[in-house]
């Protein structure tokens, strides 16, 4: 899954609906990148549905984590990475948000991010 918005692009390379976490790489200006961790949890549903993603959005709870080693050295990160953490993640190590997942995309409505399907291994289940 790939996204591009607001001066950065990103990739979620190993998203699996039932096997969290997934790697989230953010590419920033000047060649800098930031590796994050995407944790997801299923939300309680009133209606049953199949076990796989389809065109109907599957609502998940999501937490974006700045790994401990990166967080510990955040003062020495490139300016673009520090700015991303401040602006997009609220300056927090853990950012709780909502994720709407389909076969075609992963959308983070509260953050304004959408990652589009980029190949057969991008979205599992």
List keywords for this structure.
about 120 residues; mainly beta; elongated
Describe the structure.
This protein is mainly beta and 125 residues long. The protein has one domain (2-119). It is 12% helix and 42% strand. It has helices at 68-72, 79-88, and strands at 2-5, 8-12, 15-16, 22-27, 33-42, 58-65, 94-101, 105-108, 113-116, 123-124. Strands 1-2-4-5-6-7-8-9 form an eight-stranded antiparallel sheet, with no helix packed on it. A hairpin with a 3-residue loop joins strand 7 and strand 8 (105-108). The longest helix is centred in the last third of the chain and has 10 residues, at 79-88. The two termini are 14 Å apart.
Q: Report the strand count.
A: 10
**String of helices and strands:** EEEEEEHHEEEE
Which overall shape is indicated by the principal axes computed on the Cα atoms?
Answer: elongated
Q: Note poorly predicted spans.
A: 121-125
Structural class: mainly beta
Count of discrete alpha- or pi-helical segments spanning 4 or more residues: 2
Tally of discrete structural domains: 1
Strand residue percentage: 35-45%
Mean pLDDT, all residues: 86
Distance between the termini: 14 Å
Q: Which value, in Å, is the CA radius of gyration?
A: 15 Å
What kind of sheet is the major sheet?
Answer: 8 strands, antiparallel
Share of helical residues: 10-25%
């Amino acid at each position: 899954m790939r996204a591009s918005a607001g001066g950065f692009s990103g990739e979620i390379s190993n998203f699996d609906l039932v096997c969290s976490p997934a790697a989230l790489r953010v590419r920033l200006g000047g060649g800098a990148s930031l590796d994050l961790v995407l944790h997801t949890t299923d939300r309680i549903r009133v209606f049953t549905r199949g076990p796989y993603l389809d065109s109907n959005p599957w609502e998940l709870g999501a937490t974006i984590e700045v790994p401990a080693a990166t967080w510990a050295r955040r003062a020495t990160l490139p300016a673009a990475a520090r700015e991303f953490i401040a602006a997009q993640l609220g300056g927090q190590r853990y950012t709780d948000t909502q994720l709407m997942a389909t076969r075609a995309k992963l959308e983070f409505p509260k953050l304004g991010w959408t990652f589009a399907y980029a190949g057969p291994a991008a979205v599992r289940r």
